[in-house]
């Protein structure tokens, strides 16, 4: 298999890059203020600063991941951790 | 620095696909952004009763007296509980009043001298400003934020795949080469020139939209532990008192403005936001502009009795407010004068062209083996991008041609804009030639924009491009004609440049762009 073909992303990888990665990045940004040990304003500021670069970089990271399984694994891990933090903040 | 072949290919594909998929909204947003930069200056053009000569003087005391008379006449009868009043300004010498009546927005103009009241005929430039952020559409702000992030991704991947070749590509344009090479050169020149602007626009738009649509509602729980008051106070806009159910007369607007000026001297106070009107707990938020670097917006809250309750200085009280305000001011070019806004407008048009040329490169690359999805995407982008220009032209034309007495006239203008854009996209999907479709839409839009100054001059019995009349109308005439000329030239260029025989080209077509470095 040529290097080009090996690197050609499949449907699953594309879905991870287009949907999974931005969503996971958004969830992490939303959950981040709940765990940052700082004043309310600084926690809000942290979320404002990280959300955009994170959402832009996450699809690139997925496309450059060694395998599709690793990409989805990273998305699942980040999303689960963020959802747990958000669930604790909202309940 | 050279990237590995596989990494380069992935980043190139991400750049191309993300750009192609988001291109319709990106082109529309850039064009709407260009118009939004001059939304205040366009008001006399869209609302002819605001047109005055260059030497018109605004009598503030008389305007406040007229406003007070309007409020007092309605006190205890049909005074709205919430009212926004835009004070007279050089571009809009009448008072503008807006309130909600039965859930629907009502806006009227009030002549400051005579008290003559007239319904608002058009809010075109403000509507286009809102559509720039997709604000009127359900979930639109979130979608606009995602599109801005896609732009940031496109700019970032473009930067990485161009690293080391900036100096060469900044000035390299080969119009005699194969079509894809020519479009690629133009795309790289426009992209390299506009890269800092596009990066700033993408980041600021993303932070404005994502913050408003997603972050703020969640941050109340995660950053402020459910304390909404603390969240609002951080931004410098604390919540007002609730109605006390005790009737009272309307606030004295001259006193309110005087108090605001005492609290924040040197600020241009431009709007009253009156709340709980007719109630003893009524208050007025006096909004203002202050030139303080990247911080601009002020507010002074004055109570019914004339007591100053809250002062928000430019930038707000906390770091987050300062960041968000700086993002908005940077995005809008409000930190400097007209020169910066003109530069923004030019770069905005370059950026729209950069997206279009990127699409053309993408199309040329696939021209020999177009799959069904490629054909559909080509038609969609052609209709969408050309349709953005056409919808803009159609909305301006509707502003001229809709009857003045038409009920809810601004809503008809909005409808014409949406219907034109949708019709172009749907029409393009069934039109057999994507490039011809985009070319015809651009040509038609250009023709409309060029004709508009003459149409307006004929309707209002004035000279076209008349520097003696209203300076705002003169500048609008020139701007619309220039925009039209730009669209016409773009349509001519797209039609004029036909595919050349690849055998004549120095860089053969079958060599992929990323391999011809």
Outline the structure in words:
Chain A has 91 residues and is an all-alpha fold. Chain A has one domain. Chain A is 86% helix and 0% strand. Chain A is built from four helices and no strands. In chain A, helix 2 packs antiparallel against helix 3 (40-64) and helix 2 runs parallel beside helix 4 (68-90). Chain A is elongated, with a radius of gyration of 15 Å. In chain B, a hairpin with an 8-residue loop joins strand 1 (83-86) and strand 2. In chain B, helix 7 crosses helix 11. Chain B is built from 15 helices and eight strands. Chain B has a domain at 55-120 and 237-316. Chain B has 517 residues and is of the alpha+beta class. In chain B, strands 4-3-2-1-5-6-7-8 form an eight-stranded antiparallel beta sheet. Chain B is globular. Residues 500-517 of chain B have low confidence and may be disordered. The A-B interface holds A 3-4, 6-9, 17, 22, 26, 29-34, 40-45, 47-49, 51-53, 55-57, 59-60, 63-64, 85-86, 89-90 and B 5-7, 9-11, 13-14, 18, 146, 149, 152-153, 156-157, 203, 206-207, 210-211, 214-215, 218-219, 221-225, 227, 230-231, 234, 318-320, 323-324.
Mean pLDDT of chain A comes to 89
Which chains have the largest interface?
A: A-B, 38 and 38 residues
Radius of gyration of chain A: 15 Å
- Please estimate the helix content of chain A: over 70%
Termini gap of chain A:
51 Å
Q: What is the helix/strand order of chain B?
A: HHHEEEEHHHHHHEEEEHHHHHH
Helix and strand layout, with pairings?
The complex is a heterodimer of chains A (91) and B (517).
Chain A: H1 3-7, H2 11-35, H3 40-64, H4 68-90
Chain B: H1 5-36, H2 43-46, H3 60-74, E1 83-86, E2 95-101, E3 104-110, E4 117-119, H4 124-132, H5 140-162, H6 166-170, H7 179-222, H8 228-235, H9 253-263, E5 268-275, E6 283-292, E7 295-303, E8 308-312, H10 319-332, H11 338-366, H12 372-401, H13 409-430, H14 434-459, H15 471-496
Antiparallel strand pairs in B: 1-2, 1-5, 2-3, 3-4, 5-6, 6-7, 7-8
Helix pairs in contact in B: 1-4, 1-5, 1-11, 1-12, 5-7, 7-10, 7-11, 11-12, 12-13, 12-14, 14-15
């Amino acid at each position: 298999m040529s290097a080009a073909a090996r690197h050609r992303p499949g449907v699953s990888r594309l879905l991870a890059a287009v949907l999974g990665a931005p969503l996971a990045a958004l969830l992490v940004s939303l959950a981040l203020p709940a765990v940052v040990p700082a004043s309310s304003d600084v926690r809000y500021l942290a979320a404002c600063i990280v959300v955009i670069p994170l959402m832009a970089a996450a699809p690139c990271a997925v496309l450059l991941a060694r395998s599709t399984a690793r990409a989805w694994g990273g998305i699942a891990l980040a999303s689960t951790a963020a959802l747990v933090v958000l669930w604790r903040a909202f309940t | 620095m050279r990237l590995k072949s596989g990494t380069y290919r992935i980043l190139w594909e991400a750049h191309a696909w993300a750009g192609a998929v988001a291109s319709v909204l990106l082109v529309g947003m850039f064009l709407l952004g260009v118009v939004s930069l001059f939304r205040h200056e366009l008001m006399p053009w869209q609302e002819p009763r605001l047109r005055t000569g260059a030497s018109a003087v605004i009598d503030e005391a008389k305007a406040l007296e007229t406003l007070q008379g309007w409020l007092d006449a309605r006190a205890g009868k049909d005074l709205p509980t919430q009212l926004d009043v835009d004070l007279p300004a050089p571009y809009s010498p009448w008072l503008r009043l807006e309130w909600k009546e039965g859930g629907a927005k009502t806006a009227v103009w009030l002549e400051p001298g005579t008290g003559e009241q007239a319904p608002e005929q058009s809010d075109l430039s403000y509507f286009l400003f809102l559509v720039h952020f997709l604000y009127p559409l359900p979930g639109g702000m979130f979608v606009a934020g995602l599109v801005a992030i896609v732009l940031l991704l496109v700019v970032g991947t473009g930067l990485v795949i161009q690293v080391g070749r900036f100096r060469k590509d900044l000035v390299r344009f080969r119009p005699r080469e194969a079509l894809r090479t020519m479009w690629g050169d133009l795309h790289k020149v426009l992209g390299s020139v506009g890269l800092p602007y596009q990066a700033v626009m993408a980041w600021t738009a993303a932070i404005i939209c994502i913050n408003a649509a997603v972050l703020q509602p969640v941050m109340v729980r995660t950053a402020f532990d459910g304390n909404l008051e603390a969240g609002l106070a951080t931004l410098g806009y604390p919540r007002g008192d609730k109605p006390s159910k005790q009737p009272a007369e309307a606030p004295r607007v001259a006193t309110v403005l005087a108090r605001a000026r005492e609290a924040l001297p040197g600020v241009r106070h431009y709007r009253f936001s009156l709340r709980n009107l007719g109630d003893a707990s009524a208050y007025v938020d006096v909004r203002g502009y202050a030139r303080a670097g990247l911080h601009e917006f002020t507010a002074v809250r004055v109570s019914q009795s004339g007591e100053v309750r809250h002062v928000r200085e430019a930038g707000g009280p906390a770091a987050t407010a300062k960041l968000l305000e700086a993002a908005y001011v940077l995005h809008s070019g409000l930190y400097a004068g007209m020169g910066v806004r003109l530069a923004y407008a030019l770069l905005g048009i370059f950026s729209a062209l950069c997206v279009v040329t990127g699409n053309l490169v993408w199309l040329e690359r696939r021209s020999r083996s177009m799959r069904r999805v490629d054909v559909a995407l080509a038609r969609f982008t052609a209709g969408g991008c050309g349709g953005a220009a056409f919808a803009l032209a159609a909305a301006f034309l509707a502003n001229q041609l809709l009857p003045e007495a038409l009920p809810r006239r601004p809503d008809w203008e909005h409808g014409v804009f949406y219907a034109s854009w949708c019709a172009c996209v749907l029409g393009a999907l069934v039109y057999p030639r994507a490039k011809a479709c985009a070319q015809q839409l651009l040509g038609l839009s250009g023709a409309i924009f060029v004709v508009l100054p003459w149409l307006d001059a004929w309707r209002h019995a004035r000279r076209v491009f008349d520097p003696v009349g209203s300076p705002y109308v003169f500048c609008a005439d020139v701007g619309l004609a220039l925009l039209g000329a730009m669209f016409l030239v773009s349509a001519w260029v797209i039609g004029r440049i036909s595919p050349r025989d690849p055998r004549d080209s120095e860089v053969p077509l079958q060599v992929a762009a990323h391999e011809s470095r």
